[in-house]
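Tutorial, part two.
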Amino acid sequence: MIGLGRKGSPPELPDELARELEAAPASLADSVAAATSGSSLQEGILHDTTALPLHHGGRLDELRIAWRLTGKPGLPLVVALGGISGGRRVWTGAPATREARAQRGWWEEIVGPGRALDSERCRILGFDYLGGSGETTGPARGQDDFPSVSAYDQAEVLRRLLEHLALPAPQAIVGASYGGMVALAFAQRWPERARRIVVISAADRPHPMSTAWRSVQRAIVRFAVQQGEGPEGLRLARALAMATYRSADEFAERFGGLPERHEGRFRFPVESYLLARGDAYAQSFVPEAFVCLSESIDLHRVDPAQIRTPATLVAVREDQLVPLADMRALQARLAGPAELIEISSRYGHDAFLKEAEALRPLFTRVVRGAQS
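Running the prediction step on this input gives:
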């Protein structure tokens, strides 16, 4: 067995259920969560003792899968998968304040009652990624021998979770960034188990320039870990990553001011922004998990000719990480029906986190498709 992960922040649950889950062993967490199956919020940890052979070699003899399901039973099911920082808390309804930031979901601006992906019209399932910083199995701090993880492995985790929860085939698997890679892998392996995939800013393989940027980020973290400074390495790697997530137009608009002296040297406005984002990230994520999932992005390869599930692709013209040409090429090679929606956004690769109005018609159409 290779690692069973580590505890993250406590789940957001009604007070009584939260106390029960806190007192229950991990192997009983699902049975406790299942007791609320008639409610609009279920959350638990599946302790799976069936070995998981990994796509790139090695295996996990058992694993934990942390999941969260919101929405009333009987509504269409949508699986929501985000970037490597996204997890089971897709949305929580927490206020947009500094104090509540840690409790907010990663897609809070897009998902929720009356939002672009309306949580009153569908059920939403999220899970913590294998190899990540959540409560699903992943590397502990200081662990350098956790195996390489593929998008196919994440897809297998999702398959097991859907079966365990006895959920119907999702109306859609909506994946953005790394989540889009997982959606493509799932559709290739099990075309009959999802009615549609929605892939935002993800192609069938990474662009070499994107791999170049991420390779440097991983090298920074690995070097820092060797020096006993893992969080500092993660801080710098995340700061560098932020420069690739957004567009040149946004940076020109926001950070064109003059530098200021700080501790005897000049500090530029964009520098302050990037390092602040890096600080926030390093406080919440495990350096070794960042390396694991970053590598997983660059190992990603699927065969579009084997994907028959109807697909909606969303490309952002200003995306530095996933060029428009790669999304167009993916559409042309998919075996099943595929549409490509092109949008423009100053947020670049991060458009899926911000562009609620651009995504609203798409999500409305996807959910209505199940009700028509």
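The domain at 15-205+298-371 is CATH 3.40.50.1820 (Rossmann fold). In part three we will examine how such features are distributed along the chain.
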